[in-house]
Amino acid sequence: MAFKNLTDSIHFEKAGRQHQQIIFAWLAEPHIQEFWDNSQEHKEDIINFIHDRQQHYFYGTTRYWIGFVDNQPFCFLLTDQLTVTQTSLTKLHRQYLSKTGHTITLDFGIGNKAFLGKGLAAPTLEKFIAFYNYYVDPLANTFFIDPDENNSRAQRVYEKAGFKKLGAYEMKEGAFTGQNTYLMVKELANHCD
Ligand SMILES: CC(C)(COP(=O)(O)OP(=O)(O)OC[C@H]1O[C@@H](n2cnc3c(N)ncnc32)[C@H](O)[C@@H]1OP(=O)(O)O)[C@@H](O)C(=O)NCCC(=O)NCCS
Fold it and tell me: Which atom of ligand 1 is nearest to the CA of 160?
């Protein structure tokens, strides 16, 4: 299929066994390791997810997705639904949980270096949110993303994708415990309050 530009060709698939090798190759890349959870628990969680096994990391409900551009796998996304009953949520996160629908937290990385620094990151996130809202969960109307305070490139990209910085907090669990992180939020325009 011929596309007008690279962005038009972007599509997403749920991560499966066929993606295991590429995911782990991306996780080994230095540019991913700088800002990505490199723990054994996270890796085991990916394996459990792609083999449809019970997950245990964080809430045990993280979903993993692969983004393709021009039919080549290039990025990795994580989603998890946040709910008011999750005791580890910060006050800041609670304050911005959707009151009318579902709140989805995201993680994002471009593993394929051939597509890094090409201006694809913000349009990819915008397309992923539209994809998620349309195909996965129409009630998902609020999206969180949490860039490290030192990850100014990611912050720039998230702002371009329509996320707003609404506060900062210290990570209390996971691979980046003790790090200061921004909470950035995107609310879909068409949801009614
Ligand atoms: C963050 C990431 C997805 C961005 O993708 P990318 O391909 O590098 O980004 P793009 O080329 O689409 O856009 C980068 C933007 O940030 C700007 N930028 C680049 N380096 C920057 C820096 N150090 N500080 C601020 N802005 C920066 C670029 O100028 C560009 O903005 P512009 O279009 O207005 O000029 C990618 O670098 C990545 O996967 N990094 C490793 C994992 C990671 O950090 N994930 C985020 C975890 S929260």
Answer: 34
Q: Under CATH, which architecture does the 6-187 domain have?
A: 3-Layer(aba) Sandwich (3.40)
Query: Degrees (nearest 5) of the Cα angle 132, 124, 185?
Result: 65
Residue carrying the six token digits 């990611």: 154
Model pTM above 0.90 = yes
φ, ψ of residue 147 in degrees (nearest 5): -75, 145
Summarised one tens digit per residue, pLDDT across range 75-118 is 999 999 999 999 889 999 999 999 999 999 999 999 999 999 99
Q: What are 6-40's pLDDT values in tens digits?
A: 899 999 999 999 999 999 999 999 999 999 999 99
Supply the residue whose CA is at minimum distance from atom 21 of ligand 1.
Answer: 153
